[in-house]
Amino acid sequence: METQRVVILGAGESGVGAAMLAQKQGFDVFVSDFGGIADRYKAALQELNISFEEKQHTSELILNANEVIKSPGIPTIAPIVKALVKKNIPVISEIEFAKRYTKAKTICITGSNGKSTTTMLTYHILKNAGINVGLGGNIGQSFAAQVATTEFDWYVLEISSFMLDDMFDFKADIAVLLNITPDHLDRYDYKLENYAASKMRIVQNQTANDFFIYCADDEETTKSLGKTKIAAKQYPFSIRKKIEEGAYLEDTTIHINTHPKEQLTMSISELALQGKHNIYNSMASGIVAKVLELRNETIRESMGNFKNIEHRLEFVAKISDVTYINDSKATNVNSTWYALESVAPDVVLIMGGVDKGNDYDMLKDLVRSKVKAIVCMGKDNKRIHEAFEDDVEIIVNTFSANEAVQVAYHLAKKGNTVLLSPACASFDLFKNYEDRGNQFKAAVKEL
């Protein structure tokens, strides 16, 4: 029998991981990236003798594949993807491919906001409880690379809608859907229902032995539930109403009940993650932990000592009684809403960058009640001025992290918070959101 040919489009973390696993499984592997390949990924491919090309897609080397693994960042309207579909060559995600070669169970977390935090927190709880667990998907090391090189019993995977679009036979043993809010609509014909349908693929192939955990307070999720057949055992969570089986907030106490005899209660003041949205994230992780029957003490301890990911509401410093917070990962309006919702009033907000057609309306009430000044950081801040000129007295333009921090420092008084939460992509002035966050932190440390 001739060797099956697997072609991988995109040579980032997921692509190179998929290439490693495909080679290990005996496929004839070829990697093609339309852009340049980062040095460390190039070195990894060269070391394994995997053939690759960059800055082009050569049709005759791709359209002879038995199957193609596509990076989540490549849209379905890319010419090479259209050509593959036309030839009926299956196009799948790295997650779909990797799951075929592992017996490990998966906890899959998706949602427009909070998925990185919830994924990290869930992983933290499981690891502390002594479970042999890996972390992957949209975060950390590629799932496929780990399947190729290590043996875990469980994986906690952060899953984006783009990954879900290319997942077909994959099944999540425990699926978590945090929320559905408008994001990436340019990939979904600007229709929220298309994006919502993508998110609901998280429950596909689940059986009665699996679990689906979701936010009962999220309007779009509730709408989508009505259109989706769900076989799994459901555990909703809410901060607005009492939930019989799942999790809810009563006054300042979280109740998590998946087993009638084994309820977990915890005061929100004990949570490492503060702010309303983080109560949701903590509830979701807590339900996962209870489904796995971990001990209440272990869960409580882990939820109390968790350190959040870099660039997500990250405490940087307190200088002259002013708190500086780096939330550079907030690349959409919703994330900035969450950030403002979780910090104390009297905020000097640093925002701006590449605007993906943002609708700033949802921020207006919070800006009015909590923000005393906005420092714009970006090449074109016209839309921010238009959106908030009636809500904030001071709006200043700056063109670097250093300048933004200097201006914010002069505007902030004792007890205020300087919050970098841009609501925009970073590509006008920075390499990426990490670069933006690191430059902000460096500027704060120089004050």
Descriptive key words:
447 residues, Rossmann fold, UDP-N-acetylmuramoyl-L-alanine:D-glutamate ligase, Protein-Tyrosine Phosphatase, Chain A, 3 domains, nine-stranded mixed beta sheet, six-stranded mixed beta sheet, 35% helix, ATP-binding
Topology of this structure?
Layout: E1 5-9, H1 13-24, E2 28-33, H2 39-47, E3 51-54, H3 59-62, E4 67-70, H4 79-86, E5 91-92, H5 94-99, E6 105-110, H6 115-128, E7 133-137, H7 143-149, E8 154-158, H8 161-165, E9 174-177, H9 192-200, E10 211-215, H10 219-225, E11 233-238, E12 246-250, E13 253-257, E14 264-267, H11 276-291, H12 296-305, E15 314-319, E16 322-326, H13 333-342, E17 347-351, H14 364-370, E18 371-377, H15 382-388, E19 394-398, H16 401-411, E20 417-420, H17 433-445
Parallel strand pairs: 1-2, 1-4, 2-3, 4-5, 6-8, 6-9, 7-8, 9-10, 10-11, 11-12, 16-20, 17-18, 17-20, 18-19
Antiparallel strand pairs: 12-13, 13-14, 15-16
Helix pairs in contact: 1-7, 6-11, 6-12, 9-10, 16-17
Please tell me about this protein's structure.
The protein has 447 residues and is an alpha/beta fold. The protein folds into three domains: 5-92, NAD(P)-binding Rossmann-like Domain (Rossmann fold, 3-Layer(aba) Sandwich); 96-305, Mur-like, catalytic domain (UDP-N-acetylmuramoyl-L-alanine:D-glutamate ligase, 3-Layer(aba) Sandwich); 314-446, Alpha-Beta Complex (Protein-Tyrosine Phosphatase, Chain A). Helices cover 35% and strands 22% of the residues. It is built from 17 helices and 20 strands. The strands form three sheets. The chain has a nine-stranded mixed beta sheet with strand order 7-8-6-9-10-11-12-13-14, with helices on one face. Helix 4 (79-86) links the parallel strand 4 (67-70) and strand 5 (91-92). The model has no long low-confidence stretch (mean pLDDT 93). Residues 311-424 form the Mur ligase C-terminal domain. It holds the Pfam family Mur_ligase_C. Cell wall formation. Catalyzes the addition of glutamate to the nucleotide precursor UDP-N-acetylmuramoyl-L-alanine (UMA). It comes from Pedobacter frigiditerrae.
